[in-house]
Design goal:
Blueprint (H helix, E strand, L loop, with lengths): L1 E7 L1 E2 L11 E2 L5 H13 L10 E6 L7 H15 L7 E6 L6 H10 L3 E7 L3 H7 L5 H14 L4 E7 L6 H14 L3 E6 L7 H5 L5 H17 L3 E4 L2 E3 L6 H7 L3 E5 L4 E4 L2 E5 L3 H10 L5 E6 L2 H12 L10 H6 L1 H9 L3 E4 L2 E4 L7 H5 L4
Helix pairs in contact: 1-2, 1-10, 2-3, 3-5, 6-8
């Protein structure tokens, strides 16, 4: 299984918590960026037709006009073939920039899955986050996706936000359950250096986030969504195949500024500098890389364990890997962080929120 990730770094505005590779107010660069994507994609002719999943993320991919989206789909089909033939194809959208026309275009192009960012169902929290849309925009965009024929929609939420109560987060979960979303991902707020939140001195609230996290997990389970990864919940048959490929250490190709790839044992990422990416593509030069590394031996096997343990089903280790990491595994079992489930090793469900304590043992 091999995935294709395509990064579109354009946003209407920069959210307070965002440390992703994204830029606001540069929509004028989009036509040239599509040219650059076409140029970069052409370099991977040998991989054409070998992809099982596609994920278009950002940034805000839905910021593109309908005409630009149509062109993007044409470019990507030269690499993937018809989207309808893929095991899964996901398009990421923000509510305020997704309308009925774009939703129909995406579904008719063959996208089988949409990911719609919500973060919170309360307008005051959305405003505090710097989100350009409000809950009414989300409800309208969600309805547009349903009307277009999408029966597999992911929604994103955040917990531990400034001014957010447990009741707020519970209400957000209830809203998604009422909409019968097929997939929900939620994450605790992390304040990273270089973000507006960091500059403003916003503090993380890990204890509050932990309580919201556990309550939400129980509510989603009761609502028919199965937890299959630390922060991801899905109805039967609606797990993210693209993300599962990451967690199973599968190969993937990334196209676009800041996009990461893992091919032939090498991990690499394109430059996050959009204009440097555009200049290289226009000149027919190699795309500058942010990093390139080749994990081997123990480091590669440790990564395999850490990625596999993100899944609630855990990971089945071969005898040689189990023996190599016997001391680390024994400590985690004795501490009650890990447990054995038949042939698999997994993080205890009650300890998923503190999974970083497990992963540190293998770094």
């Amino acid at each position: 299984m091999r995935g294709l990730y395509v990064h579109l770094p354009f946003c209407r505005s920069k959210c307070g918590y965002c440390d992703f590779a994204s830029e606001a107010g540069k929509e004028a660069l989009i036509p040239g960026y599509l040219d650059a994507l076409a140029s970069e994609a052409a370099r991977y002719d040998a991989l054409a037709g070998s992809f099982s999943t596609l994920y278009v993320g950002g940034g805000t991919p839905s910021l593109l006009t309908a005409q630009q989206l149509d062109r993007l789909c044409g470019i990507l089909e030269t690499v993937t073939g018809p989207f309808s033939a893929l095991a899964e194809s996901t398009f990421e959208a923000n509510p305020e920039s997704l309308d009925a026309q774009k939703a129909r275009l995406l579904r008719e192009a063959g996208f089988s899955r949409a990911s719609l960012g919500l973060q919170a169902a309360q307008d005051r929290l959305l405003a505090a986050l710097g989100r350009p849309g409000r809950y009414a925009d989300f409800a309208r965009a969600f309805a547009a996706l349903r009307e277009a024929g999408f029966d597999n929609i992911n929604t994103d939420l955040m917990c531990g936000l400034p001014g957010q109560s447990e009741a707020d987060f519970s209400d957000s979960i209830k809203a998604l359950l009422e909409l019968k979303a097929e997939h929900v991902s939620f994450y605790a707020l992390e304040v990273h250096e270089g973000t507006p939140f960091h500059a403003a001195g916003v503090q993380e609230a890990p204890d509050a986030a932990a309580a919201m996290y556990e309550n939400a997990a129980a509510a989603l389970k009761a609502g028919g969504l199965e937890r299959y990864e630390i922060s991801n919940f899905a109805r039967p048959g609606r797990r993210s195949l693209h993300n599962l490929n990451y967690w199973e250490q599968g190969e993937y190709l990334g196209l676009g500024a800041a996009a990461a790839s893992y091919l032939d044992g090498e991990r690499r990422a394109n430059t996050p500098d959009t204009e440097a990416y555009l200049a290289a593509a226009a000149a027919g030069a190699e795309i500058p890389r942010q990093y390139s590394e080749r994990l081997e031996g123990r480091a590669l096997r440790a990564e395999k364990i850490m990625l596999g343990l993100r899944k609630t089903a855990g990971i089945v280790l071969s005898d040689d890997i189990f023996i190599e990491f016997r001391e680390e595994i024994s400590r985690l079992l004795a501490a009650g962080l890990l447990e054995k489930a038949g042939p698999a090793l997994r993080i205890k469900e009650s300890r998923l929120y503190v999974s970083n304590a497990v992963f540190r043992e293998f770094v």
